Amino acid sequence: MDVSLCNDSEDLTVEVADTGIGIPAENLPFIFDEFYKIRNKETRNITGSGLGLSLAKRIVEAHSGSVQAVSEPGRGSTFTVVLPRIAQGDGGATEPTDQLGLK
Questions:
Q1: CA angle, corner 17, sides to 23 and 55, nearest 5?
Q2: CA distance 16 to 35
Q3: pTM (2 decimals)?
Q4: What is the DSSP letter of 17?
Q5: What is the DSSP string of 26-94?
Q6: Considering 25, 57, 88, 90, which has the largest number of Cβ atoms within 10 A of its Cβ?
């Protein structure tokens, strides 16, 4: 697994890449949906609820950021998170709990 960080004047970008089984192209549009799990012979023994990526996306978006994934079956996946920098002394936007729908 490789993790890289790019910190420029406007954004903080974190990229996480692996060399795992990858994600088929037809599944990529759905991987951030709640409870979505890819079911095939390669994922048969992988456990999980299908909530991790959807929660990660909600948290990133609550901070005015974005997350995306690119993948190639048999070669791995790369997830990129981009978060805007907040200027020193800037209180930020609205409360994250409002944006997450928790209030």
A1: 70
A2: 22
A3: 0.77
A4: E
A5: TTGGGTTSTT----STTTTT----S-HHHHHHHHHHHTT-EEEEEEETTTEEEEEEEEE---TT---SS
A6: 57
Instruction: Sketch out the chain's domains with CATH numbers.
Output: 2-88 (3.30.565.10)
Rounded Cα gap, residues 17 and 27, in angstroms: 18
Name the amino acid, one letter, at 78.
T
Look up residue 52 and give its two tokens: 């991790």
Q: What is the distance between the alpha carbons of residues 73 and 21, in angstroms, rounded to a whole number?
A: 6
* 5 membership: H or E segment, kind and range: strand 2-7
Report which secondary-structure segment, H or E, holds 14. Answer: strand 11-17
Burial (Cβ within 10 Å: 0-12, 13-18, ≥19) of residue 90: exposed
Q: What is the mean pLDDT of each run of 10 residues along the chain (103 residues)?
A: 93 96 93 87 77 95 97 96 80 48 46
